[in-house]
Amino acid sequence: MAESWAATVRLVHERANYCCEYCQTSQEIIGQAMHVELTRMAPTNPIIYASLVRLAISVKPPMF
After folding, report:
1. Cα–Cα distance for residue pair 50/54, rounded to 1 Å
2. pTM (2 decimals)?
3. For 11, 26, 35, 64, which has the most beta carbons within 10 A of its beta carbon?
4. Cα 63 vs. chain centroid, distance in angstroms?
5. CB 49 within 8 A of CB 7
């Protein structure tokens, strides 16, 4: 039985210590939303699946 996406997101946030896994910036410091992204095709095993997602800063396009 696979974990829910919400459970996977919580696991990834905890594993990443609530920081972007690319630049190590904390959401609290920059005030920008974080998102969990899938890095490649994930298997159905929830432990392996959680290792294939990363926490990243949500980059918003500039407003003109």
Report:
1. 8
2. 0.58
3. 11
4. 25
5. no
Rounded CA Rg of the chain: 13
Q: How many other C-beta atoms lie within 10 A of the C-beta of residue 8?
A: 19
For the record, the structure tokens of 56 come out as 């990243």
Q: What is the pairing mode between strands 53-57 and 34-38?
A: antiparallel
Dig out the tokens for 30 from the structure.
Answer: 């920059």
| Cα diameter, the chain | 46
> Which H or E element spans position 7?
helix 5-15
| In contact, 6 and 43? CB cutoff 8 Å | no
Q: Which one-letter amino acid corresponds to residue 9?
A: V
Domain locations in the chain as residue ranges? 5-57
pLDDT in tens, 12-50: 888 888 888 778 888 788 777 777 876 655 555 555 555
